[in-house]
Amino acid sequence: MSTKADLIVGLQWGDEGKGKIVDHMAQTHDYVCRFAGGHNAGHTIVINGKKYALHLIPSGVLNPNAKNIVGNGVVLSPKDFIIEMEQFDNLDGRLFLSDKAHVLLPYHALIDQARERMKGDKAIGTTGKGIGPAYGDKIARVGHRLGELLNPPKLTAKIMAFFEMNKPIFDAMKLDAPNESALLAELQGYKDVLGKYICDTTQLMWKIMDEDKKILLEGAQGTMLDIDHGTYPYVTSSTTVSAGACSGLGINPKDLGKVTGIAKAYCTRVGNGPFPSEDFGAEGDLLRKNGHEFGTTTGRPRRCGWFDAVAMRHAVRVNGVDQVSLMKLDVLDGFAEVKVCVAYEVEGKEINYVPYDLEEATPIYKSFAGWDKTEGVRDFDALPDTAKAYIEALEEMIGTKMGIISTSPEREDTIIR
Ligand code: IMP
Q: Per-residue pLDDT tens for 86-118?
């Protein structure tokens, strides 16, 4: 019998506050593994007054006893990864990069930005980091895997041939082919730093599971940004849901243990696309201000609104969530009334599921009495009665227990039930 891996996934449109929970759980796990996404993700952690920005390196890097695996489901920008690594001392023996992860190169970011410009007001609002083009190349079978970085001359030749073949497309995007010798030097530089970390992480996953290590799988983005189960095409290009943990690391569904879904007590989204419970008024502004809702990766103001219980039920089911960790409850402190989207109206009919086109859905709200203060509360019984009633109503609506409730950014300000 091998051990089962704990999994953390986002249940909304990303930015649910996974960082605080992953950081907390990384302290008690031997391995922390990323399975999807790239450096579009991001969270900042402050330890002993020093600020660390994590985009792709798993959060286990902050626990000296934990090891970190970047799985095959990830797209990795060597340039940005190396910059991120510079925040840390020697990672030898603590960092393992899948030879099957795909390489994201600067031209992917240029293509991403060019496509967004060409889409005009239909733009997705991507992070501009090249995530879509890198995954696009992977699926179109013209991408490059990290294992190829071990032979820079061969990879250079392949990339030059790719540019030659796609010249008309790149010309239309006003994108020049790379300079061959500069590209070779660039790839050689990446190999020099990253080469020793590249390995078969699938075998490693199996080995550490057989050794009964404690393993944490760290999701990125959120369920509503999933390529299949999110608000396509306004999504990211990876499988962000729990199924992605299997394909993105080479493990099987029976290897998954407890699934903790992370959700904010309200809702936010960055970029374009449907968001039925968005609040365009003063209360939305207040959520943004109180919740410091500005992107970690791009600095963009986040769109803010109310907890969407319909989308949450969808997310709970897609991911097989065992418990929800409810984040940023304190951001709702001081609101006279707190709203929850309990159903949608589509073409005059009330529905209680996520429809094909969420753009068509109008939210139906239920209001709850607000409360003065939950900030810093560490015990469920010490919460104001109205806050307890709000949480219990959410549990009832989504059919899952809120096992963890966070009442401030501080690690200790967490209710464990
Ligand atoms: P991309 O992942 O850069 O292609 O962006 C696609 C969509 O996902 C855009 O709406 C982004 O704002 C959103 N997105 C990507 N990464 C994150 C994240 O870590 N948090 C929140 N939204 C994200």
A: 999 899 999 999 999 999 999 999 999 999 999
Ligand 1 pocket residue status of 260, Cβ below 6 Å: no
Question: Does 224 contact ligand 1 (Cβ within 6 A)?
Answer: no
pLDDT value of position 1: 60
Q: What is the CATH number of the domain that holds 60?
A: 3.40.440.10
Please tell me whether residues 240 and 340 are part of one structural domain. no
Query: What six digits make up the tokens of 391?
Result: 């949480």
The residue from 146, 171, 194 where one domain ends is 194
> CA–CA separation, 270 vs 299, rounded Å?
10
Instruction: Using alpha carbons, list the distances in angstroms from residue 331 to 143, 408, 416.
Output: 42, 8, 19
| Distance in angstroms (rounded) separating the CA atoms of residues 236 and 127 | 9
Tell me the CA–centroid distance for residue 274 and ligand 1, in Å: 14
Q: Cα separation of 350 and 168, whole Å?
A: 49
- Domain match, 37 and 80 both: yes
Indicate the SS3 state at residue 58: coil
Q: How many residues does the chain have?
A: 417
d(CA 125, CA 132): 12
- Among the listed residues 385, 390, 416, the one whose alpha carbon sits nearest the alpha carbon of residue 403: 416
Whole-angstrom distance, CA of residue 247 vs CA of residue 313: 24
Distance CA 68, CA 182 (A): 31
Say if residue 296 is in the same domain as residue 327.
yes
Q: The tokens of 153 are what?
A: 């001359």
Q: From the CA of 87, how far away is ligand 1's center (Å)?
A: 24
Determine which residue's CA is closest to atom 9 belonging to ligand 1: 126
Of all protein residues, the one whose alpha carbon is nearest to atom 11 of ligand 1 is 126
Token pair of 207, please? 């080995």
The CATH number for 184's domain is: 1.10.300.10
Ligand 1 pocket test: which of 221, 235, 275 has the largest number of ligand atoms within 8 Å of its C-beta? 221
**Cβ neighbours of residue 155 under 8 Å, at least 6 residues apart?**
144, 148, 149, 187
15 and 83: one domain? yes
The answer to whether residue 46 scores a pLDDT higher than 70 is yes
pLDDT of residue 23: 87
Number of domains in the chain: 3
The range of the structural domain enclosing residue 396 comes to 263-416
Outline where 195-330 has alpha helix (H). 201-210, 242-247, 282-290, 309-319
